[in-house]
Amino acid sequence: MAVTIRDVARASGVHVSTVSRTFSAPHLVNAETRTRVLAVAEGLGYRPNRAARALTTGRTHNLGLIVADIANPFFPPLIKAAQAQARERDYHVFVADTDEDPLLEQELIETLCKQVDGVLLCSPRLSNRVIERLRAQVPFVVVNRRLKGLTTVLMDVGQGAGVAVEHVAGLGHRRMALLTGPQSSWTSEEMLAAATLAARERDIELVVMGPNEPTEQGGLAAARAVAASGVTAVLCYNDLVALGLIEGLRERGVDVPGDVSVIGVDDSLPGRLNRPKLTTITMPTAAAGRMAVDLLLAAVNAGDAGTPTLARLETHLVVRESTAAPARDGGRSILTPT
């Protein structure tokens, strides 16, 4: 016979309502009692009926997680960490990919709102106006987009961009490019503001090129302009753009880092395996995924009484093989771009 909630209560020495709260609202149960009940439930093989619990509590115990591009290696560590964090709190996560399309993103949110208790938006492409309208339907937490009145987790890419400019300045570069990402990207805006300030302070000429697709193809497409620009260093929107740029420059006879130094953002696995290994700004994606789930569940439990939180996670520069001092002869000035 199937194990029931009454069996768990009897074996744990607690009331049925305590067992119910252990699974539906664990934060309301004493830690020692909660541990005992969970251990008994595990030993008996008890599994709560999620559908019945949803009818009783009004909670689905599901969360939505929407990312801009699941094929981008930036997102999988965040998704994996968010799923693990949610699982520890007896929540399931539905993952959806917008393919960088704001209209699809809106459609996915409107669909998920009916099936989840809250939504995590990672690097959203929607306008602030649309997000403000949609947030009335379900609690939101946004990752890497600053929105007034909305709980947000930010990876401080601006701080990393400033350090990247300082790095190339220290190597002796005096003219560098910034390859920005999509037009609606918060990350692009933060990188541009920080890189502009750092370049001014370090007496570096900054050439801004973009918007660009946040993919290897975006980097390949930008290679011609970079080769013709006379810059000796490039800070790219992400690692994929940087890897595409390196390949595009190689096709034009431009050596990295001998002629042009290249820096990415993310510290993804492809950049570590590339030759040259990519100098990059590491992003704490797993920590952001865990923190976003915790903040979202806090918002779900608090309802309208919750206070919006702004959490900022530090980034740092990882120096590898794709950056070096500029060539004495000016490097790329002796090359003929094709």
Descriptive overview:
With 338 residues, this protein is of the alpha/beta class. It has three domains: 5-57, Orthogonal Bundle (434 Repressor (Amino-terminal Domain)); 62-155 and 284-314, Response regulator (Rossmann fold, 3-Layer(aba) Sandwich); 157-283 and 318-334, Response regulator (Rossmann fold), CATH 3.40.50. The chain is built from 13 helices and twelve strands. The strands form two sheets. It has a six-stranded parallel β-sheet, with helices on both faces. The protein has a six-stranded mixed β-sheet with strand order 7-6-8-9-10-12, sandwiched between helices. The longest helix is centred in the last third of the chain and has 18 residues, at 285-302. The radius of gyration is 24 Å and the shape is elongated. Residues 3-57 form the HTH lacI-type domain. GO terms for molecular function: DNA-binding transcription factor activity; transcription cis-regulatory region binding. InterPro entries: HTH_LacI (IPR000843), LacI/GalR-like_sensor (IPR046335), Lambda_DNA-bd_dom_sf (IPR010982), Peripla_BP_I (IPR028082). It comes from Nonomuraea dietziae.
